[in-house]
Design goal:
By secondary structure, the chain is of the alpha+beta class. About 45% of the residues lie in helices and about 20% in strands. It has 5 helices and 6 strands. It has a 3-stranded antiparallel beta sheet with strand order 1-2-3, with no helix packed on it. The chain has a 3-stranded mixed beta sheet with strand order 5-4-6. A hairpin with a 5-residue loop joins strand 1 and strand 2. Helix 1 crosses helix 4, helix 2 packs across helix 3 and helix 3 runs antiparallel to helix 4.
């Protein structure tokens, strides 16, 4: 690692600490030439996860796009931190499949499954866009399916 002060690449690690979530390690370093201290972060470089869209185009998976879609559907209903964890969990699940490429349908179904458990209204909002509802009956059908899978509410 090159010292940002003198450019020398001779340093030693003074302190190492894992970052929250365990996705990175923070290292405090000291240059052996000039004595300057600086911080570096070490992260795992993952191979890219690709998404094949309905059009056939292949794009890199971006958890931020999943998060944005869920956030629009969850407006004022679900905390952002919960949605961020959900988006991360979806990415972990897709990566755990061991496949380098997934379909946009697989991503959408993962989002729907998670939103169903988080908040029913958010689920229906997302489903209306994802499934391209065109008629009021589409909402009724989706709500009927949602009610079938949920236990009856106590009176």
């Amino acid at each position: 690692m090159r010292c940002p002060d003198c450019g020398q690449d001779d340093d030693h690690v003074v302190d190492s600490r894992p970052q929250p979530g365990g996705e990175a390690i923070r290292r405090r370093r000291e240059c052996l030439r000039c004595g300057g201290r600086f911080t570096t972060f070490e992260r795992i470089e993952r191979r890219p996860l690709l998404v094949r869209k309905r059009s056939g185009a292949v794009v890199p998976f971006e958890a931020s796009r999943v998060l944005d879609g869920m956030a629009r559907a969850a407006k004022d209903r679900v905390e952002r931190s919960v949605l961020e964890e959900t988006a991360s969990d979806i990415e972990r699940t897709l990566r755990a499949s061991g496949r380098r490429e997934v379909t946009s349908e697989q991503v959408g179904l993962q989002v729907l499954a998670r939103l169903r458990d988080l908040d029913e209204v958010t689920y229906v909002r997302y489903a209306s866009v994802y499934k391209d509802f065109q008629r009021p009956e589409d909402f009724e059908e989706e709500l009927s399916e949602l009610r079938k899978e949920l236990p009856p509410k106590p009176r």
